[in-house]
Amino acid sequence: MSEQILNGNRRAIARLISQIENDRPEAQAVLAELYPHTGRGHLVGVTGAPGTGKSSLVNQLAKFYRRQEPPKSVAIIAVDPTSPFSGGAILGDRIRMVELAGDPGVFIRSMASRGNVGGLARAVDDAVKVLDAAGFELIFIETVGAGQNEVEIAKSAQTVIVVEAPGLGDDVQAIKAGILEIADIFVVNKADQAGAERAVATLKMMLELGRPASRPVLHHGQVMATPAPASGGAKEQPPAGWDIPVLKTIALKGEGIVPLAAAIDQHLAHLRQSGELANRTQARLIDELEAILQAELMKRLWDQLPPDLLASVTIQLVERNLTPHAAGQILLAEFFKDGDGLNQDQAGSKQ
Question: What pLDDT, in 10s, does the model give residues 194-205?
Answer without folding.
Answer: 999 998 998 888
